[in-house]
Design brief:
Length: 1291
């Protein structure tokens, strides 16, 4: 008789069993053994009642049972005869998944159809008694369910029940279930064996014979058979059936592509056959193979289309077959690029790479899903085309990916997939894959995405051309440093731009600045170039060393290099490349700010000295650049143990450079087809002795491990307080796992009040001792809850948990400190969370402390002490200020706010982005400091609130005069009104280019009124003013200006006028006076009085001898000292002849007198004579000399000067020459001058020549010549007399 399973919405016992196991997550660390759980006795069920959907055939723990409704059990599931073992504990399964191996919802059999409404024949959907059942002491109750179609209609059912009752002395009965589609036969009696035998006789008598064949995976057959056929024998004895298994001759296979099938044949009465079928189905469900099949024949270019366009198909395929389909993301090729486009025909997409589609699930469902995916692959092969585009490689990440569009969104919009090259490939090619009619859409969107970003390359090759190790390495080193300084983050916030540094050592050394705004990209590039120029080659040092040292030197030497040398160290993350040293300078408060100025030469020399010292220190700190290596064979099964052993050994040794141990490449990371590497581990280190010592330690450890394996059966136990088991286990079993690894033992905590330990005797006893110690420690443990205002929690925890970590380190991290979750953020939560399971809800103001009494007391006292300190110094107050006052409160660069903080000692917080008209300023600190700061801010707020704003209209033509030179006029008006120091704070003029005549005046009412009145008065004066011009000779303009303009300002202030005095070089004589008529008149009268010239004596001097008579201006200076001024009535003096030094000689083309450089020639002087009459030949006419004396000069004085001038004119008209005498030793000039000028005056008197002698002791130049002016013969005589004095001084 054949039967097949029909799909049904009603859950089968196997499904319910799977659900219970899936929901039951008991762990060995927290749940006692089920064998030790005392189950209640069976109970009776009320006649005619059954609840098919509440079955519970599985073994349930006390924890899980506590979640169920309290219902008496109807079957002792620990009775091996009544319910044989189904093999190992079931794994969690999907609740809706039907039992059996094959298509979903069915078990492959050749038996009769199952009962309508169930999906599996055999056991009913319910084994719970009906509600209201009565429990009979010492009574056993059980039942069997038989489908209506399986009942032998010829059987006398009532007689069968009566016979069984009589024969076995049990109560029997029958009821309809499942809406009359089945009958339930039950028996109840004092002895379980009699109840079971009675039901077996009833089943044989009332049900038809049945023969089914069940297909099962060959790998599950051994679990069905049991050890030495135990399961088969038991079922045949219990149910009176015959079971035969036909094995696949090929045996089991782990290859999902080659399933092996065995067939189980069961014969007997229908009820018993169904019962056995149910048990087989349960075992198959538990043990059937789960396979993971990689699809290696799929080209990765198909992945986006399967995950995107066919996403619904994939979802349905998973749901229908209870599968997991993992399709790798593919928008960047790895092993090889997509195929090249072809001129005609379709591209040949070929499978490549190690990333494959993975199907996971039951074997047959996996194979069916593979077939459906193969069909989709063929469809894609006929449909997809390919096009190649070119795009700057640096822009690739902005097309699709984390920084660009989502690849599936690109596919959704265009129907195409875009494939980028990996970052390490130097190529600009990208590929568009899609249907022929959508390729253009893909190309257009890709080009649109490319155009959204602006790339500004930064090539530093020229800038670092003199780098000792090449510009490329220097550029990469600087990039590494700037990345450590989070420059990318700063540029994103400052410029809204990204910096792309070289991603690997083989990449191009150039950098790129990427932005959506072209201007910001340019600005960011300029800023980056400034930073680069601040880090020349002298500021960066590259230190090559074996990568062995890289993991150690960062923690060991970074801080010391920073403190002692001002050098920041960058250690490569990938252990490839040199160590980078960058000079930053001495430590300073706050974070280091990247410089943007090119350093000077002395600064660069300082960089080099510091870097050289840092390099010498670093290289001197490491033992040797030579790294030794060795290998040792270690079986793979012991790798984890050896790894822990080495870690423990090195922790105890605390060597600065411990030997590195490499266990080779894991299986999953080896290329496909590569043979497994030998079971060797490699040791590397700078010391051969350390390597040898570790080798011997590992070898000895392996001997111990092998010995331990022989002693694994040793078991010991120790008492342990049950209430502390969770502490022993830890969160997610972390503590007990650490104990297992530390002692290499197995630990069982399931039994109340007892811990079992299994492993090598020595290690098990050591673990036992530690567990006993922990138990005593937990016994000494106390718990405190302290109340602390939540506003202090953040400061108690500290930044990133800093304060909390310090506190826990003081007590060796043996005390647990729990802050409320509402006050935790990110890193802090990790510092305060540990194991312990569910806890009572923690109030927001509670801090919980738990640990050993003494240390918990210490933590509590410190927290309370710190809280008290915070309370004493956390007095707070607020002041409301107008939002426009924020700027003045902060001051330029925050100076005003810092001043206020420093003077008051309070913390003052001003909102960065004020909202609304009023802003709240928060003040914190000690009470006195807060009160002082509050008083000052409140005073400023009150004053600011009293500020009024008034606008006035002033014709734009007056704005410039109203402002005055450099703002002097408006500043004076504001200050006189009592306004601020900066006039711009009180009076605001229209902005440049703005067509407005409105001025805004701000301040207190009295200040505003005064300023407005002053401005109105100023404007009124300007509107009523007149302008007059006074003719003042140019040489007298200085009389109106004075020193630094003091006379001019005095006139303007005294008469309230404005003077416009022409520039001297203009030659204009008109001085304009503007102001009120009365003021202009008074100023004019005053100016005329200043410039009025007294009458003087006029002498007409020929222009040709003007400069000779004036003696190069010395005559005028002498007269000025006598109180006599010479005026020329506005005439320009004649051109001054070249009468001094080399200029005179050059004018006359005369050769300069030279002193030989030959030391053998002792020439003591050089002399040259030039005629002065040649200089005056071009001048004709006369120039007036008006002699004007002050009040102290008499007429006799004027007459005397007049005679001197006339005599000088007469003498100057005679032929005159000038001689230039240069002595080899200028220090001899003092002998020519003589004591108080006696010698030179004597020579002047004898020769009637004007002789000028410069001072001695100066370097030789044109100014060192002695000049002699007079008649030619007398000039020669004067020269001779001077040389005689020089010769006399030499002797």
């Amino acid at each position: 008789m054949a039967s097949t399973a029909d799909a049904s919405t009603e859950k089968t016992p196997a499904q319910l069993l799977a659900e219970q196991h899936a929901a039951h997550h008991a762990t060995v660390e927290e749940v006692p053994d089920e064998e030790d759980v005392a189950h209640p006795p069976p109970s009776h069920s009320a006649e005619g009642e059954a609840t098919p959907n509440t079955a519970t055939n599985g073994i349930m723990s006390t924890k899980a049972a506590g979640k169920q409704k309290e219902k008496p059990s109807v079957l002792d599931t620990h009775d091996e005869e009544a319910f044989p073992s189904l093999g190992p504990a079931p794994k969690a399964a999907t609740a809706t998944q039907a039992p059996g191996w094959g298509s979903k919802g069915s078990l492959k059999t050749s038996a009769s159809p199952a009962l309508s409404g169930t999906s599996t024949p055999g056991r009913p959907a319910s084994r719970d008694p009906a509600a209201g059942a009565v429990n009979l002491p010492s009574a056993n109750r059980d039942y069997i369910d038989v489908r209506k179609e399986d009942i032998n209609k010829a059987a006398p059912i009532q007689k069968v029940l009566a016979d069984a009752k009589k024969k076995y002395r049990v109560n029997t009965g029958m009821q309809e279930i499942s809406a009359g589609q089945a009958h339930r036969f039950f028996a109840e009696g004092p002895q379980r064996a009699q109840v079971r035998q009675a039901l077996l006789d009833i089943s044989k008598a009332v049900s038809l014979e049945k023969d089914i064949k069940i297909q099962i995976p060959a790998s599950v057959s051994s679990s069905i058979i049991g050890r030495a056929g135990a399961n088969i024998k038991k079922w045949e004895a219990q149910h009176g059936v015959r079971i035969n298994i036909k094995r696949d001759p090929r045996g089991p296979s782990n290859d999902p592509t080659d399933p092996r099938i065995d067939v189980v044949e069961v014969k007997g009465d229908s009820a018993s056959v169904n019962d056995v079928e149910y048990k087989i189905a349960a075992i198959v469900k538990e043990n059937q193979p789960k396979v993971a099949l990689p699809l290696r024949d799929f080209a990765p270019e198909f992945y986006p289309f399967l995950a995107g366009r066919h996403a619904a198909d994939m979802q349905k395929l998973q749901q229908d077959n209870d599968l997991n389909i993992n399709i790798p993301q593919y928008h960047t090729w790895q092993a090889q690029p997509p195929p090249r486009p072809v001129a005609s025909g379709r591209p040949q997409f070929v499978p490549h790479g190690d990333s494959h589609i993975m199907l996971s699930g039951e074997q047959e469902q996996v194979m069916q899903a593979k077939a459906q995916l193969e069909a989709l692959k063929q469809q894609l092969e006929q449909e997809l085309m390919l096009e190649e585009l070119t795009c700057e490689q640096v822009l690739h990440p902005y097309i699709v990916g984390p920084r660009g569009m989502d690849p599936l969104e690109f596919l959704e919009q265009t129907g195409c997939a875009i494939i980028l090259p990996p970052g390490h490939e130097e190529t600009d090619d990208i590929h568009i894959v899609g249907p022929a009619d959508r390729i253009e859409d893909g190309r257009n969107l890709a080009e649109q995405l490319m155009a959204q970003k602006y790339n500004r390359p930064v090539d530093l090759t020229k800038q670092f051309a003199n780098a000792p190790q090449g510009p490329e390495r220097h550029s990469r080193a600087l990039a590494q440093y700037l990345q450590r300084k989070a420059l990318e983050r700063d540029f994103m916030s400052q410029h809204n731009s990204e910096i792309v540094f070289p991603q690997h050592v083989n990449a191009a050394p150039s950098w790129s600045v990427i932005s959506s705004d072209q201007q910001k990209a340019v600005s960011a590039k300029n800023d980056l170039m400034k930073i680069a120029q601040a880090f020349p080659t002298s500021r960066i040092q590259l230190v090559d060393m074996d990568p062995f040292y890289h993991p150690h030197i960062g923690d060991m030497y970074s801080q010391q290099l920073q403190d002692e040398h001002g050098v920041f160290m960058v250690v490569p993350d990938n252990e490839d490349g040199p160590v980078v040293l960058v000079y930053e300078g001495p430590a300073q408060e706050g974070p280091f700010s990247l410089p943007r100025q090119r350093p000077t030469s002395p600064e660069q020399q300082e960089f080099e000295r510091a870097l050289q010292a840092a390099q010498q220190y670093l290289l001197g700190a490491i033992p040797s650049q030579q790294i030794s290596a060795s290998e040792i064979p270690v079986p793979r099964k012991h790798h984890d143990r050896v790894r822990r052993h080495v870690r423990n050994e090195q922790e105890r040794a605390s060597a600065p450079f411990p030997v590195q141990i490499d266990f080779g490449e894991p299986r999953a990371q080896r290329p496909r087809g590569q043979q497994q590497a030998p079971e060797n581990i490699s040791l590397r280190g700078p010391s051969e002795s350390d390597i040898e010592a570790l080798r011997k330690s590992i070898e000895q450890f392996l001997i111990e491990v092998e010995q331990d394996e022989k002693e694994r059966d040793y078991t010991t136990e120790c008492p342990f307080p049950q209430k502390f088991v969770k502490n022993l286990v830890g969160k997610n079993g972390a503590n007990v796992k650490a104990l297992r690894e530390k002692h290499d033992v197995e630990i069982d905590t399931r039994e109340d009040g007892k811990v079992k330990i299994q492993g090598p005797q020595k290690k098990a006893e050591a673990c036992k001792a530690e567990i006993i110690r922990l138990g005593k420690q937990y016994e000494d443990e106390v718990s405190y809850t302290i109340k602390v205002d939540p506003k202090f929690h953040g400061e108690l925890i500290g930044k990133s948990g800093e304060n909390l970590n310090k506190l826990q380190n003081k007590v060796n991290k043996e005390v647990r400190i729990d802050f409320p979750r509402v006050s935790r953020t990110g890193d802090v939560a990790d510092n305060v969370s540990e194991a312990g399971g569910p806890q009572a809800r923690q109030a927001p103001d509670e801090i919980r402390i738990r640990g050993p009494r003494a240390k918990a007391d210490k933590v509590r006292d410190e927290l309370l002490s710190l809280t008290q300190y915070l309370q004493d110094n956390s007095y707070s107050a607020t002041v409301s200020v107008h939002k426009d006052q924020i700027r003045s409160l902060i001051g330029r660069g925050g100076a005003e706010l810092e001043r206020l903080r420093g003077e008051t000692g309070a913390q003052i917080d001003v909102p960065n982005k004020p909202e609304g008209e009023r802003v709240t300023v928060t003040i914190k600190g000690p009470k006195a400091s807060v009160d002082k700061a509050k008083q000052e801010i409140a005073s400023k707020s009150k004053a600011f609130d009293a500020v009024v704003t008034q606008t006035i209209t002033v014709d734009r033509k007056h704005h410039r005069d109203l402002i005055g030179s450099k703002g002097s006029n408006i500043q004076k008006i504001v200050q006189q009104a009592g306004g601020p120091e900066r006039s711009a704070e009180a009076v605001q003029f229209p902005k440049q280019g703005e067509d407005s005549s409105t001025l805004t005046v701000r301040g207190t009412r009295d200040v505003v009124d005064k300023i407005v009145a002053s401005i109105n008065s100023f404007v009124e004066d300007k509107d009523s003013q007149v302008t007059e011009t006074i003719d003042v000779p140019v040489d007298q303009h200085r009389l109106l200006i004075g020193t630094a303009g003091n006379i001019r300002r005095s006139i303007e202030e005294k008469f309230s006028v404005a003077l416009d005095i022409p520039r001297r070089e203009s030659g204009k004589t008109g001085v304009k006076v503007a102001g009120r008529p009365d003021g202009v008149a008074q100023a004019k009268e005053h100016i005329l009085s200043l410039t009025k010239q007294p009458e003087g004596t006029t002498i007409m001097v020929p222009r040709s001898v003007h400069h000779t008579v004036a003696n190069d201006g010395r005559f005028f200076r002498d007269l000025s000292r006598q109180g006599i001024k010479v005026d020329h009535k506005g005439q320009q003096p004649p051109r001054k002849p070249a009468a001094n030094g080399s200029a005179a000689r050059k004018a006359n083309n005369a050769a300069a007198p030279l002193i030989t450089d030959d030391p053998s020639q002792e020439q003591l002087f050089a002399f040259d004579i030039v005629s002065l009459n040649d200089d005056a030949e071009g001048e004709t006419g006369e120039i007036p000399w008006v002699l004007i004396g002050n009040r102290d000069v008499t007429e006799d004085n004027i007459a005397k000067v007049q005679r001197q001038i006339e005599e000088a004119i007469e003498a100057a008209q005679e032929p005159r020459h000038i001689g230039y005498l240069r002595l080899a030793d200028p220090s001899l000039h003092r002998h020519v001058i003589g004591s108080r000028g006696a010698t030179i005056n004597s020579i002047r008197k004898k020769t009637n020549c004007d002789i000028q002698v410069p001072g001695g002791n100066k370097s030789q130049n044109d100014g060192e010549e002695i000049t002699i002016i007079g008649v030619e013969d007398m000039v020669q005589l004067a020269k001779d007399l001077i040389l005689e004095e020089v010769e006399r001084a030499g002797n």
